[in-house]
Amino acid sequence: MTIKNVKFFLVNAFTSTAYGGNPAAVIFLDEPLPEDAYYKIAGNFNQPMAAFLLPAAGRVYEGEEKDDPFDLSTTKTFAMRWFTPTFEAPQCGHATLALAHELFQDRDLAPPTATLLRFETMHCIFSARRLSPLSATPKIQVQLPAHSVTAVDEEEFQKMKNIVAKASGKQDIAIRFIGNVKGEIGFDVYVLVELDEQEDLGGIKFDTSAFLETPYIVNIMTKAGQTPEIAYETRMFAPKIGVSEDHVCGSANCLLAPYWAQKLGKKDGEEMSAKQVSQRAGDLWTEVDMVNKKVLLSGEATTFAKGEFTIEVV
């Protein structure tokens, strides 16, 4: 049995402050761990998500050729997994941003010549690049898959509306649209609910336990921004996996960005500013590339703490 020292970081994603955004534990590993160790480590950190960096395994995904072009001199490839104490997530935007933030600062793993990070994940390649590197808090842009939502049928609309009304404590809550993703593994557990622009999304005190009644894991609430600078506002609830409310959800924008781009008449590559109106709040910038079915999600991140822990490896 070997005792190893492991680097860790606590990072707030989608904020430039120490007390905003969405926290994540970031753990750098040089080899895989026994499966139960990931859950135990995530439990010890007790953050909304723990992101584990691992060496690349050379995975190839459906629709991606092994010789897909990217510049080896400026690209570094790793593997990444996301865990809560009870659940391995198929994707997580905020923890990806947090991990990329730390990786770009590690000159051994990601030298200055590295401008693009590629991550092998459960279902696909995620990537991240650093924007405005000379800024005190440079934005990082994460590339995520884009998914279109389809309106649910009338029966499910009424069921979801009743649940949202119960959760919000407003029987007359005005809902404009409810849609989900069809046939996409990992995203078929997401639902998007657009509230009327007159609803105060940030001010509603949701009873998040009500979302246990939906057939979905990730319950996204959204509405048009209250100011011209903000394209859309959002909140996300996932009590089925122990996340009563996600402070700032990155992966929700895999649905939100395409939805709002189409609704607002945005062209591919045209940036939108979004606001997560949870208590901690967060700022995000999104653009879509529907030709290649990608969402480009940008934000800042701040390191709150860092150190090492020891682990026994058999």
Give a verbal description of the structure.
One of its GO terms (molecular function) is isomerase activity. It holds the Pfam family PhzC-PhzF. InterPro entries: Phenazine_PhzF-like. It comes from Schizopora paradoxa. This is Diaminopimelate epimerase-like protein. This protein has 314 residues and is an alpha+beta fold. It folds into 2 domains: 157 residues, Diaminopimelate Epimerase, Chain A, domain 1; 143 residues, Diaminopimelate Epimerase, Chain A, domain 1, CATH 3.10.310. It has 4 helices and 18 strands. It has an 18-stranded mixed beta sheet that branches. Strand 1 and strand 2 form a beta hairpin. It is globular, with a radius of gyration of 19 Å. The termini are close together. About 2% of the residues have low confidence.
Features:
18-stranded mixed sheet, alpha+beta, Diaminopimelate Epimerase, Chain A, domain 1, 2 domains, globular, 314 residues
Helix-residue proportion: 10-25%
In terms of DSSP E residues, the strand content is: 35-45%
User: C-alpha Rg, in Å?
Assistant: 19 Å
Note the overall shape: globular
